[in-house]
Amino acid sequence: MAESQPKIQGTLKEALVLNASYQPIRIIDWQKALILWFQGKVEILEFHDIEVHSPSQSFALPAVLRFKKFFRPYYAFGVKFSRRNIFLRDRFTCQYCCKIFAEKKLTLDHVIPLSRGGAHNWTNVVTACSKCNNKKGSMSLKEANLRLLKKPIQPKFLNQSEIPGMRSHLPENWIHYLNLKVE
Hints:
Layout: E1 7-8, E2 14-18, E3 24-29, H1 30-38, E4 42-53, E5 58-67, H2 73-76, H3 83-89, E6 106-110, E7 125-129, H4 130-136, H5 141-144
């Protein structure tokens, strides 16, 4: 009989990972958080009010972890190239019209279109609203008469505290570690 996976009661949770110096370096899923803890690499500073259950044990889900040894965050993980992280890097702002949108209203655009040899990476993908993305299509910026708000870069980390509107999406037990003021 196959070994069963732990069942989560409620929604999936994520954990904030801090360096040994308490610098926020990454957000990871609960599975990776528990693996790091089992490996003895981290100490758990805060827990979510939810547990995972396996056939033989229950574990409170970690909310905040701190690595026991110091290392440079960029070399340890880097920032995963993903749709969500592009939106975070660009602060949920269309890089063409400079307007802020809800995540569900945003798309990704290749500055140099894939059809023209552009790459699918940090330095060629930007956040765009549907209107601007449709206007640009497979044209170059010059052909579409568009300009970028800022040059796309590969971030070394994502500073969550500088992202407008993110406070309402952060678990309360992360606020202290991100040095945010709660209003």
